[in-house]
Amino acid sequence: MDDISVVLASNRGPVSFTEGPDGFETKRGAGGLSGAVDPVARRLGERAVWICATNSDVDRAAAEDPDVVDRAGAELGYGLRMIDIPHETYARYYDVVSNRMLWFANHCLWDELDIHDFGADELAAWSEAYEPVNRRFAEEIAAVGDDRSLVLVQDYHLATTPRHLRELHPNQTILHFTHSSFCGPKGLAPLPDPLPRNIIEGMLGADLVGFHVHSWASGFMDCCEDIGAKVERDAGRVTQDGRTSWVRTYPIPVDPASLRERSQNASAQHWKERFANFRPDGGALIIRADRAEPSKNIVRGFEAYGMLLDRRPELLASTRFAACVYPSRASMPEYQRYMESIKEVVDQVDRRHPDAIHLFMEDDFDRTLAALTEYDILLVNPIMDGMNLVSKEGPCLNEHDGVLVLSTGAGSFEELGGHAIPIEDPLDVEETSRQLELALSLSPDERKRRASGLRDAAQARKPGDWIGPQLEDLRAIRSSGEPVTSL
After folding, report:
1. Number of H helices, E strands in the chain
2. Taking all residues of the chain, what is their mean pLDDT, rounded to a whole number?
3. DSSP β-bridge partners for residue 50
4. Which end of the chain is less packed: N or C, by CB atoms within 10 Å?
5. What pLDDT digit, counting tens, does each position of 427-447 carry?
6. Residue 171: is it exposed, middle or buried by C-beta count within 10 angstroms (0-12/13-18/19+)?
7. How far apart (Å, rounded) are the C-alpha atoms in residues 464 and 35?
């Protein structure tokens, strides 16, 4: 670490701003990216710079005062640069392209959401907002780094930033990491030309293209073949226009110690008692914890529980389902409709089986942590999910030898599937219902055995195990042209 400098680039940064009585106040980011990268940036100190976009009107106001951003950087312990993006441009870059087009493409949600056509508005949003924002990120990276800096570009919001940066700094060493799933040509095909090719060529501007698991890396290499690139799958090497990009997987872990510490606060303990009271005497508590996101497949999960109670109504006396489902991307019509669908299916199940489901629809991290300590069954049934940290957090926190019912669409299935109850087809409500029933039938010894295996697998990697190999691979590529890890 002593001989490197790092430039990080992501849409959402390590902090956001709020307005308090004494001026701007910072709010720390939480979760996967911030939790994994922030400690490394702190260790690097002045040799690290994190570049992000302004995500709100308060962020934009704060970014106008360099002293405010500098103070935030001093609190973080490393450099912070915020790109001020006008509200209308940001909405088109973020909502229209990143979250309506690229997110749905990466998760193959076109049929699920009945989206099949794009027109001039979407193409204009790409050319007038998404590409200019990605170019602006590249310019900012070029301004703060040099050819010796290792550049880590994060996620689908910045898919073309590597290509723009390559044009500015041909010798830069660049990583692009996708945190979502990447389902491949089937996902990109519905996008209007020239987006599918531009996205892949944009990512191939990087020397190293990272994903959480092999399924998503394979989907990316399928897309590379579709645009005529030479793909050597066993080596994870893609050659396009005379340049080589390496494809690697780095499964992101959780931080059990931090989660356990947070779960001990007064708010989490209050919710822990409430969830314990939901459990019928001698019965089982089923939990799910998700963003209200179509890829999470929440509606089918509730339908499956309702189907189980229809088939075996006596289980209502011994089971309850508590769900922490918080809003996401509420400005987008697809998400508004999905929220309504969630409420409707819960009402339908509760009309047939009163008080079967307790639904919480506000974002409350302490409540979610409490739910994860208390479950007997954790249902995680996404259609596709880049990783799904809840499926790892639950086994680390749970105090009841909880069983994980996990779909093969979750990236975490590669690590946890051997100890979980699998859902082979997350679109099959009947299968999900049967697997919930199977989970309820397990003996105490089998529950304990599976819970121990899940806990060991979820804790096998530490937060530093994610970012460390990426930096080592980048440093090796810079010096010798090849990463040190294999695909």
Report:
1. 22, 17
2. 94
3. 8, 80
4. N
5. 999 999 999 999 999 999 999
6. exposed
7. 10
Specify the long-range contacts of residues 125-129, CB closer than 8 Å, at least 24 apart.
125/92, 125/93, 125/96, 125/97, 126/97, 126/101, 126/195, 128/89, 128/92, 129/89, 129/90, 129/92, 129/93, 129/96, 129/97
Positive or negative CA dihedral for 263, 266, 268, 270? positive
- Dihedral of the alpha carbons of 350, 352, 356, 358, in degrees to the nearest 10: -10
Q: Does 194 sit behind a cis peptide bond, omega within 30 degrees of 0 on the bond before it?
A: yes
Tell me which amino acid residue 357 is.
I
Kindly give the residue spans of alpha helices, DSSP state H, lying in 99-255: 103-106, 110-113, 120-125, 131-144, 161-168, 185-188, 195-203, 214-226
User: Residues 191, 196, 199, CA angle at the centre, nearest 5°?
Assistant: 125
Cα 34 to Cα 12: distance, rounded to the nearest angstrom: 9
74-92 per-position pLDDT tens digit: 999 999 999 999 999 999 9
**What is the DSSP code string of 97-137?**
IIIIIIHHHHTT-HHHHT-----HHHHHHIIIIIHHHHHHH
Task: Report yes or no: 416 and 392 within 8 Å, Cβ to Cβ.
Answer: yes
User: If we measure between CA atoms, which residue out of 364, 370, 365, 368 comes closest to residue 270?
Assistant: 370
Judged on CB neighbours under 10 Å (0-12, 13-18, 19+), 243 is: middle
User: For strand 243-249 and strand 237-240, is the pairing parallel, antiparallel, or unpaired?
Assistant: antiparallel
Q: What is the spatial distance between Cα 155 and Cα 179, in angstroms, rounded to a whole number?
A: 6
22-31, 193-202, 420-429, 462-471: the lowest-pLDDT one: 22-31
CB contact at 8 A, 416 and 284? no
Residue 189, helix vs strand vs coil: coil
